[in-house]
């Protein structure tokens, strides 16, 4: 029988307030307290802290505090990734961000989802769908990336956009819900 954490990591329905997951939340909360007090540290010093909590951290990554996440261990950052102030990643499953991607302030990357069946929601069940953000992507401030979305290399997401569907490589998506626009 799978634990709630194993179910979560597999993208299956799980109970979010399970004691094992609560312990993981306490661990990352303590780490976030430390990380979010680092505004005077250099980028290399902050990057060393990121490597303590994340699955992978490429060279030259910079996340400006404050930053928020659910677990940390499901986040993989490529080389030179930049997240501006006040970003939030709900990483109940994998979040992958490619090399040289730039993410504006207040962006939310949300893998956590909830059943559409009200009886399942009453049981406090949820599930996750992974998010993949390619290389050299630019995501404008305040954008929201919803569960299961893939954003291709070189794409642009407009500020304040709510991305509900995949964005192809080189695509430009703007609005709520985000719609594709032709480059140029």
Largest sheet, in brief, is: 7 strands, mixed
CATH class reads Mainly Beta
CATH superfamily: Hexapeptide repeat proteins
Class inferred from helices and paired strands: alpha/beta
Radius of gyration: 16 Å
CATH architecture classification name: 3 Solenoid
How big a fraction of the residues is strand?
Answer: 25-35%
- Summarize the amount of helix as a percent range: 10-25%
Q: Summarize the helix and strand pattern as letters.
A: HEHHEEEEEEEEEEHEEEEEEEEE
Number of helices: 4
Number of strands: 20
The CATH topology annotation reads as UDP N-Acetylglucosamine Acyltransferase, domain 1
Strand order of the largest sheet: 3-6-9-14-17-19-20
Shape: globular
The pLDDT mean sits at: 96
Low-confidence stretches: none
- Tell me the distance between the termini: 53 Å
What's the number of structural domains?
1
Topology:
Elements lengths: L3 H6 L4 E2 L3 H17 L7 H11 L2 E2 L4 E2 L3 E3 L5 E3 L4 E2 L3 E4 L4 E3 L4 E2 L4 E3 L1 E2 L4 H5 L2 E4 L2 E3 L4 E2 L4 E2 L4 E2 L4 E2 L4 E2 L8 E3 L4 E3 L3
Parallel strand pairs: 2-5, 3-6, 4-7, 5-8, 6-9, 7-10, 8-13, 9-14, 10-15, 13-16, 14-17, 15-18, 17-19
Antiparallel strand pairs: 1-12, 11-12, 19-20
Family: Belongs to the transferase hexapeptide repeat family.
Keywords: Acyltransferase, Nodulation, Repeat, Transferase
Protein name: Nodulation protein L
